[in-house]
User: Fold UDP-glucose 4-epimerase from Actinomarinicola tropica.
Amino acid sequence: MRILVTGGAGYIGSHTAVLLAEAGHDVVIVDNLVNSRSEAVRRVRELTGADVAFHQVDLLDEEALDEVVASTGPEAVIHFAGLKAVGESVADPHRYYSVNVGGALALTKAMAAHDCRTIVFSSSATVYGDHPTLPLREGAPTAATNPYGWTKLMIEQILHDLHQADDTWRVASLRYFNPVGAHPSGRIGEDPQGIPNNLVPYIAQVAVGRREKLQVFGDDYDTPDGTGVRDYIHVLDLAQAHIAALDRLEEVGGHHVWNVGTGKGHSVLDVVAAFERASGRPIPYEVVARRPGDIATCYADPTRANTELGWTADRTLDAMCIDTWRWQSSNPEGYPPD
Ligand code: NAD
Ligand code: WQD
Assistant:
């Protein structure tokens, strides 16, 4: 199949592009590189030997986007492109609504204009809000607590409504839990710009000597060791879920929401210990105040995806840390600038 991957130069998109190309799909990447480097696309080509096409286009540039869709003729789209920093979304909501919601509108408009109505969308466990009933099932009430989360809910709603209006739309909203890890080659991985917001990239930068120590945001939660518990999922297991979702959409059509997690929770200190094992280096840390907006515990019930997609996330926390460390230690400064 010819598959358009928006945000394909980014962290999750680049890993998914590798698996798509390896599965024999014809991959076309659209990305404006606002949070990524074109080197990631070069390395996707290097890893797969595939002729992955790349268009540096902003989704908000409707004319350019339409031209890419028209000229490449995708049969399906995997839509990763968007902004993802929760704190930034609180500070600049207009930008988040504009890029994330506006981008999804422009994309689906261009798709419909060129007769492509199959889309897999990157949603997030953040749509379950801050009082989740655990483990989280897809039927749980949704509630956003910040503009980023609202954009995910709004886009899910837009896609739902498109399918309601025209059931030739085939839609999967994948609610990711906490993606971490890297390709085992160490050639592609997560490359946050500036100070990492997320736990594993921060720890990786401590291990490689770019940062002095980790700040653990609170050790007085109601969890086994007092630190926050999350459902970390290896990025390649996550990438595989997109292929399974596309296959399922081909078979049955419809509009589906699938949790993409392992169903297991690990604390901050579990992750620190796993990273120390993976890297053979100590991870100095200090416990500081809770981070505003954080919850104690969040993990998926992935049964629906396991059953309907025939997919499970098998890779362990140790594998996630080993692969992250291979990427970070061989690319201490991330990708070279364009
Ligand atoms: P990322 O920032 O690495 O990738 C997103 C890509 O989209 C980047 O390459 C960026 O340059 C591109 N982009 C942004 N705005 C664009 C625009 N207007 N036009 C074209 N390209 C644009 O992020 P990621 O971690 O790979 O996340 C991918 C998707 O998954 C995002 O939609 C994110 O919200 C979602 N998600 C991520 C996580 C996570 O923890 N990483 C969790 C849940 C959901
Ligand atoms: C994990 C745990 C922190 C950093 C975020 C978004 C969510 C989703 C995934 C997109 C928590 C603790 C973290 C640090 C720490 N993104 N921590 N020190 O908060 O579960 O989810 O990313 O959809 O929307 O909110 O992930 O990696 O930031 O935090 O102690 O320097 O690590 O308190 O318990 P989170 P995270």
Q: What stands out?
A: The first helix runs from residue 11 to 22. Residues 2-180+233-261 form a domain with the Rossmann fold fold (CATH 3.40.50.720).
